[in-house]
Amino acid sequence: MSKATILVVDDEEDIRELVALNLDREGYTILTCETGEQALALARAKTPDLVLLDLMLPGIDGLEVCKRLKADPAQQHVPVVMLTAKGEESDIVAGLELGADDYVTKPFSGKVLVARVRRLLRKVAETADDKALVKVHGLVIDPARHEVLLNGKPITLTLTEFNILHTLSRRPGLVFTRYQIVDAIHGDDYLVTDRAVDVQIVALRRKLGSCGKLIETVRGVGYKFKD
Amino acid sequence: MSKATILVVDDEEDIRELVALNLDREGYTILTCETGEQALALARAKTPDLVLLDLMLPGIDGLEVCKRLKADPAQQHVPVVMLTAKGEESDIVAGLELGADDYVTKPFSGKVLVARVRRLLRKVAETADDKALVKVHGLVIDPARHEVLLNGKPITLTLTEFNILHTLSRRPGLVFTRYQIVDAIHGDDYLVTDRAVDVQIVALRRKLGSCGKLIETVRGVGYKFKD
DNA sequence: ATAGGTCCGTCCAGGTTCTGGAAGGAGAGA
DNA sequence: TCTCTCCTTCCAGAACCTGGACGGACCTAT
Q: What is the pTM of this model?
């Protein structure tokens, strides 16, 4: 997985810089903007992995932004962290009721912020990344332990191979295009040729031995896991 | 199914060539123009699948073009990617608020550009309702799995056969000319003899067995799926 | 009913496109 | 540096699509 993209919405430049500095150091990709309108537009275009949202904004205020984000099916799973001034507890409560996931009160330290962000992203990753075991035809895929059992015996896969196998086997029968597979593993705009997937598939099939035929190729479209 | 048409709007020849080169290599059909007026005219005439739009244009500028495209019901669903100079964040945000779908900052690499374009086009394709299940007369067509069930049993079709069946069965009773069928599958201006369709239809009918008669010939016109 | 014209079904071979597989090289981490 | 992983590139084989030819089916006017 690539590093997450975080949208920072605040009308004070100092805050934006403080936040950006700290998060940038952690390797996150940062998008910043000043108003609620901009925030909604940016969120729609980029679908960030997390939103840091000041509640006191000119124009559309933070609560309204939060509400709209949570109303959009494409965005509603994106965690929102509110930035509030100390003592605005009513706002905090209102925000949480609207679906915000956490809050940080100003003034805050960079460390606290980073910790919160990291925790939330991890939480999302864990719930989104289906940790459930996948068992099919003598094959057990265990995402929690990052392990694959072939007829009871563990086999070693590289990270990419494992991810591809997991992606396909999680939705047996569904066809994935090569680029869908790439995206599922590396995130959007990761720059590779689609033939790179073929190579991984070949290696996977070989390592899976007799179970290799569970990965079916759909000519002209992509690959799917046998149903 | 066929490769998309992309409209590139930029007043710098270098940029146009760079973009065209990269996209052409990917198999996209490229239209280029230099001014906002030309862009609007071309967009109306050709309805491209995506627009790459420089914001700094002589005459009508990029933002205005974007605004007008998004105001036109016939065009508003066409994704717009802005090309901006680095540091013009205000323009980016303004563009996004006007409905642009993504942006790329100059200077950009061909790879990044291609990745963005591909991602957006796929996003559009996925939201289209092409993946809905079609059930008719003991026949189930499942685009998501790329699978056809004939009385509960799966039958194997080639890609073209599948696409034709899907096209016809989605609108039972409607007659499609041979060229309409070709267009639906390979996109406009794909040059084949209409005889090619017949051959596919024959194979389809044979594979469908008793359900073969669901595909009816309309003499002098084309084919339709039984209502 | 028949003849003539148009359109469709079928077969086959040639050419195109797609995939499997192998080899080589770049980059990250030990 | 060495190793491991992953990506690109190339090639050959296979699957597939298409064009063309031909006979039969259908329609219409006579």
A: 0.83
